[in-house]
Fold this protein.
Amino acid sequence: MTEAAAHIVYEPNYEAGPKSTRYKIWLPGEPAFGIAGLWLDWPDGTFSFTMLTVNADQHPVMKRMHAPGKEKRSVVIVPRLPWDH
């Protein structure tokens, strides 16, 4: 199993106009967090992965991200404590 940690994620915000502004998103007071995902190691030594996302229509911050009229999604953030023992 491979462990990887994230410190921040960037999401596009269009509230200031038609061109997006990158918003930096992190967990205050946490040096790192995980992002839920799935991966597969292939026999030829390569691997593929995907980050799991959830609907963010009701999330106070993440519902502001992505282009107007587009589905509001967020990666699934896993706090450090459950996996960093």
